[in-house]
Structure formats: structure tokens, C-alpha cells
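mind reviewing these C-alpha cells:
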Amino acid sequence: MQRLIRGRIGKLGIAIILIFIGLVGRLVQIQLVSTESFSDSRVNLIEASVKQRTQSMIIDEGRGRFIDRHGNPLTHDYYPSLILFPFLNGLDWPKEELASILGMSTSSIDRLLEDAEKPVVVSEFQGPVKLDEEQMKKINQLDFPGVVALYRQFKLDDQVAQQVIGMTGENEGEFLKRYKEKVSKENYSPKTPIGITGLEQAFDEFLLPEGETKLLYHVDRFGGPLFGIDVRYTGPSNPYHPVSVKTTIDKDLQQMTERILNDYQVKKGGLVLLDIETNEILAMASRPALNPGAPFDDEGAKNVMLERHFPGSVFKTVIAAAAMEENIVNDESTFNCDLDIQGELLTEEKERKGVLNFEDSFASSCNHTFGELGKQLVEADSNSIDAYAKILGLTSKVGWKGDVFHFDGFSQIPTEEKGVVWHDEKDKKVSLAVAQTSIGQKEVRLTPLAVANMMATIARGGRAEEVKLVSDIVYKNGATLYSFPDQDMEQEERLSKYTVMQLQHLLREVVVNEKGTGWRFRDLPYEVAGKSGTAQTGKKLEGGGELLNRWFAGYFPFQNPKYAMVVVELDVLYENNVSSVYHDVVKSIHDWEMLER
């Protein structure tokens, strides 16, 4: 029996020794042999251990940002800030020195540090305190552990032009589709956020981050901060990145226009405001507004200013230009505006306007006149209407495009749609279809951006230019990476100077003529020239009411043109906020310019 017991004890001892040897071997493997490639997943244990004991505060995510034409931030601000790590110093803080540099009271600093377990960005009620260069220098000269002054990126709460700027998001499949080489050669992660709409998408490759900038600090095994260990700064060493995309947007004007659209509760539509001299977009607002929490639940992620819509009588500007250029109308031409486009008496007596000349027909937007002129144009040349729509830049993309570095045919506004005049060439042989097309109905679809560009072209004397939304790409140190040059649109033909002058006169008559549809703008401090439009959409509500598109497109001041603007309200019943929005924007711009002076 004793021999049996001793045998079992011996076997148990051997087993314990073998287990111990196995554990020692495993520890040797973990601690010494496979520290950088543990298991089939080849985990780097050293890095994992450090990561487990290290917390970070992101200073800059590394993606480029957007600024307005004056350098004001549109998405993220970037300025020197003071960050305190209260757990690194206990109660021994240079509060008096900091208070003196910041112009704050020591009690304010005490309140910030009270019970703080995480890094603290020194803030006041308006947000993080913005340091100047001298303050940042003095703070860092204190050389005090846990007191760090550096440039930090802040996402703005009051973002504007959200559909113009666009959104970013993680999409591994799309990242690999766009940047497969970057993953293999430059060690990018497929989880890196990329631009998915707007300028974020168009300029994505310029904006991609080279890495985050962080402040690192260590914690104990319970996640608590380790005292006495200083903060470490880590980030890309490239002094030129991230870049800033300098847009042509004027932040003040953008905020103003968005506020006015909100005041009039425009549910669907928006506006485009161009600088006529430079053909740059000063403001572009689209409704419905973007819902950041659920951007794709409705149409808020779309920029409807880049989509084509029924223009209605705004298209009569094209027919007027063609009729004058082809000499089928003169001062003595008259039209019976008691008739509709089919030549039948209008059923509503209030819509009858009597016999009008060409000028009054344009001012009062007589459908019969332009239906007849359109038929004459197509009878003489079946391609006439399309040709003049093209000359005025309505059937091509008008946004800036060209070669930029290795990007061939780079487009600033790639999602912009082309306008359409005809859907079926056979319609050119159908009298009613031609008449409907001539008043901006049937299959005619135009983008508000292209219509605004047409008005700028007319105001400039007929020279069509590509529309810019971005002027420069700027390095982090302020140097220019690339400047987008002004570019004329490709035009095989241009309107004669006489026709352009007559168009300018007709557009002004819409406002000053007693029969004009733009009477609302007569009292403005700037003289407005333009054209209204109401278009049937073919959409109806369940109750039978027909939805309409309402437009006003024009420019101002008339004698010295500076701004071209289009306001659109889409899919509405009887509401017409367009005139009110246009009126208030023009007046607000005038008041704003007076203040600027």
C-alpha cells in the first residue's frame, strides 16, 4: 500500500513539475520570444501592453478643413489652446502664473480643476479660450508637467453650408476602391473616414489625414492616471499637412441667406448667390436642411441647387435671346395675350392681358408670345432652342473643371447635373410640345446653379465663365499648394452685344414695367433685373392640389452688376416665399455692405 501511495505521489509531483515547466515556457514565449508576433493573429504584445496603459487626447484628427474666402473656419477652427492634466501635479499648480497670462482669476482655474479626472481644455462660457502666440509661448516656458499650450482643432457647433461642404464617414469598400495603393504602400487604414458628399467628396484625396495628433498619458492597471509622469506629444511630422480648402463662400452672406430661408420656412428649395466679377459662389443654401443625426432619412443630404428642375418662365430668357438674335421679333411685333399657347381664349378673364408688344410680353410673362416665338424658331431650325440654351450655359455643367496635378479633368462640383431641353427629338415636330418647351415646361429641366450662371453671363455682357466654389488649397503653414484660375466656358458661339444689351433691358423691365411680374423689387435700395418663373411639376396631392416650382432669377445692382442670384421654392401649392426671400436677401446684402464700409 505504501509503495502504491509513493508511486501516485511521484506521478503527481512529476505532473506538477511538467505543468510548472509548461507555464514557465509559456511565460518565456510571451515575455521574450513572441513579444512582437504572438499567436496566429501575430499580436504585438509590447504595443498592446503600452496601449493598455496609455490614454490619449486627440488634438487634431489630421483631416483637412474648409475655410471661407476670408479664412474664417467653416467646419473646424484651429487655434492655440491650453490643456491641463490635473492628475500629474496634485495640488501644486502654477495657478497665479497661468491666471496672469490668461487674464483669468485663480478661482476660475480652481473650478476647472475641481474633481477633474481627465485632461481639461481651459474654457470660458463661450467655449475654449483662444490663446495668442505670445500667451502660448509664455505658458510653455513655464515648463511645468501637465500644462500644455498648443494648436488644437475644434469642430464648430454653428456649421453653415452643410450640403455644400458635405459629409465624411467610414466605408471600407469605398476606401479600398479609391485608395487601394495607399493601404498597401502608405499604411492607411481602410477604416479612415472619407468624403461621401459635397466638397468633402470632391477634394477627398487632398484632405486625407496623415495621422492623428495626440497627447498621450499613462494610467495604472485600474485605469487611473499615473502621477508624476509627463505628457507625451505624438503626431505627423509633416509641417505642410493637413491642408485647408479655401472656398469662395462668404460666411457672413451664407449665414444671412440661411437665416432668411429659415425665417420664411422654405421646406424645399434654396438659393445661389454669385459674384459676377469673379463668377464665384458667395452663398449656396439648400432645403430641406441637413439632419446630422439621420442625414439620409429625408432629402436633407442633397444639394437641390445642383439638381435640375422645371424652370417655367425663367426659360423664356432663352427664347427671347434666340428671337432677337435670329431677327424674328422687333419693336413693332405684337401678340394677343388673351390667348393660351394653343391659340385658344384663356378661360380665366383675369389672366387675359390683351395685345402686347415684345417688351411687355416679356415683362408680364405672356405664354402665348413665347409659345409662338418658339414655334417660329424651331420651324426655321429644329436645333435652334437647344443651341441658345447651350450658348447661355444651361445644358452643360458650369462648375470649374480642369487638370490639377495628376487629376485629369478634376471637377470642383462633380455631382452637378446637366440641364435638359428635349427628351425626345420627335417633340420638335409637335406644335404643342414646342410651345410647352418654349415656356419652360414639357421636358425642360435646369439647375439653379446654371440659371444663376446665365444671369451672371448676361450681366457681364455675354461672356460665360466656369463657376468656382474653391479658390485655393492652402498648406498648414499658410503657403499655397494650388490656386484655381478663372476659366471661360467653352463656347463655340456667343450672343451679339446688341442682343445682350436688349436682354439686360428686358430683365430690368420685369421690375420697372407696370405690367412686370417683379414689381415687389421696385422699392429696394439696389436696382434688380431678373425673371420670375412658375412651373407645373405634374405632381399632385391626394386632395387634388397641383404642386408648383417657383423661381426668381436675376442680378443687381442693375447699373453696376455685382451679384447674380436665384431663389427657388420647389413642390409647393400656393405659397410663394420666393419674392419675399429674394427681396430680403437683396436688402440685407445692401445693409451688410453699408456696415462693411
Observations:
- The CA atoms of residues 550 and 576 lie 7 Å apart.
- The two ends are 112 Å apart (CA to CA).
- The mean pLDDT is 88.
- The first strand starts at residue 54 and ends at 60.
